[in-house]
Amino acid sequence: MSYAAAAAKGPQQTVEEKRAPPQPQITPTESTSTSSLIDVDTPSVHTVSSDFSSQPVQTETQRARLEREAEIAEGKAREVFDKLVDDEKKAAAKARKGIRSLEANEDNPVVIGNAIAVVALSAGLGFGAYRKYAAGELTWKVAGAWAGVVGLFVAADYYLSSYLLKNRYPAKK
Fold this sequence. Notes:
- It is a single chain.
- The chain is an all-alpha fold and 173 residues long.
- It has 5 helices and no strands.
- The longest helix has 45 residues, at 60-104.
């Protein structure tokens, strides 16, 4: 059964019910005067130029936000720059200390032996790697094996040099 059929079976509306309810009336709280009208000469009304949408900064809020972001970026850049300058000074001091230590120990047999070992090992590895490369036998497996050999040599040299520098040939400061 449809709604129209169900409504037709029920009681009929009176003339009073068929009319729409009256609209609520607005009661004015202010006296009607021209003081509530907007004056177009006041600074609250702004006009914009025709190129407004193509401007990079369109509002005061946007300009303020961009200025704040620029200040923050400048502050971060200053922090990074200061940190880099400090790190550079520390690295330079460490390098000067290492050079002074090397100059002070240039006649130490352990330092001389290590320098000779590094040069000999580098030359031997370079020549051997070139021969393997030229023969087409240089693979990652061969390179890894020799890297392991170099690692063992470095570890042995470190402990032997530490022992000799502490007990037999102390380093000068």
